[in-house]
Amino acid sequence: MRFPLTIAAIALAALMPPAEAAALRENGDPLNSAMWSDMQKTFLGASPVLFDPRVKVTAPSVAESPMQVPVTVDATALPGVVEVVVFADFNPIAEVLRFFPEQAPAFLGFRVKLQQSTPVRAAVRTADGVWHVGGAWVNTVGGGCTAPSAAAGSKEWQQRLNEVSGRQWSEGPNAGRLRLRIVHPMDTGLIAGTPAFYLEEISFTNAAGQRLMRVQPHEPVSENPVFTLSRGSAEGVIEASGRDNNGNVFRARIAP
Amino acid sequence: MKRALCVLLILAAGQLGAADFDYRLAPVELARDVYGFIGKTEDFTTSNGGNIVNTAFIVAPQGVVVIDSGPSLRYGQQMRRAIAGVSAKPVVLVINTHHHPDHFLGNQAYADVPIAALAETRNGIAADGNAFAENLYQMSGDWMKGTEVHVPNKLLTAGPLEVAGRRLRIVALDGHTGADLVLVDEASGVLFAGDLVFNGRAPTTPHADVAHWLAALDQLEALTRAPGFTALLPGHGAPSADAAPIRQTRAWLTWLNASLRDGAKAGLDMNDALARPLPPEFANMPVAASEYRRSVGHLFPALELDALGARH
Question: CA B279, CA B275: separation in Å to the nearest integer?
Fold first, then answer.
């Protein structure tokens, strides 16, 4: 497998700005994480891997709250994105979420719970089967995955479960952006007596019923998740629908 | 080479200074019989041991009143020795201005003295004190050795307070935390503002309600215009003879809140907000970049809910 990938990497490099081309690597984790080979085995299997600066993962190098660490994945510089998997090497539950940008640009913002300082990575599978990997180290005091959700201390969320608030922006520097927040405890199951309870599937469709993007959150996504998407060329109302792992469903329309 | 050697020597000297765990507290006279210990305008580190806070004491006719006890047991003990160097009178009361750890973790050194606070401050120390202390152990290291939470055992309310033959006045405000005690010493005209006021150091916001804080600053500024006012001791940064630190704190909070609120309205997410540069007027203020980063974490989620039309 190595030989064809090397040819592919050279071909890729020829099309990229020199600085980015110089940063392309097929092996040797740029984040120097002891967990990288395990992560690769778990999430990427034997498929070809390229550390690729076109996969931009933005997260604060020092996170104020381990319960709400903002992460933005931008793979819009990469053509032919099929699937993106986001994981945190040192989290007790490493997989944060997966998303499939179908008609939408490969861009997603969200927040995660981190248990300790860790790389946060996005592996982006393109149509040719190659995983392009980007990431960032986040330093945090930790405890994000084994601290109870705020919902655990109140019953109000039960009346508001899956309540969606959202907005689209059509003007200004963030035109084409959609943001939404869903009320959900996103319990990890790592606290005795509180089983895992989290949103596991969200779909975004345009007014014509075409799907823009599919998101599969996992337990580490923060309580009351907030997502930032780019709707691309889609116009009009966007519908967000989905369900959690207990089968509770939701459907909400977000007007432009 | 010579320069490198100098740097090494300075570093080594710094290490020696830290290794003896001496905060080198020196009382600064704010008015007759009123003294402050002025901390550094830094974050908590293993070299400053958490001496980033201002504490104070008043030598009253029948004893000494202490305002805030510092970030650790060692600080409290060294502070008490420094007070004894100024006055042989006994310490008769310790007041904690609010429930942040750099202001009450020295209480242990005054375990034989009544320790007073507003009720919500007492409750906050009882509920969160251990978590705060753990956090300071992580940031300040061995300076914290032996430090344990000592919860206030006397409650204060707004109004006049006669202690040891001195007339004090307690003003109960909030905004920096849920309960922020401001103390006016009638005889000297010194206003102890606690962490409602920062001077030459970016304010911290982990428990802030910005609207309440701004309202509190207006009340404080009125107090500086009252007859008899002589000096203001902020919670962090140099003391002042006027309301300039109040205006500086107000300017930071007003900018911070407007910037994050407008950003959320314009569709920014938290990482976009974090990436925004500081305006030139604040860019050189000590710890501005790190406090801004922390404040985005504290304040942006609620402002974002408003922008998304969500209920809180």
Answer: 12
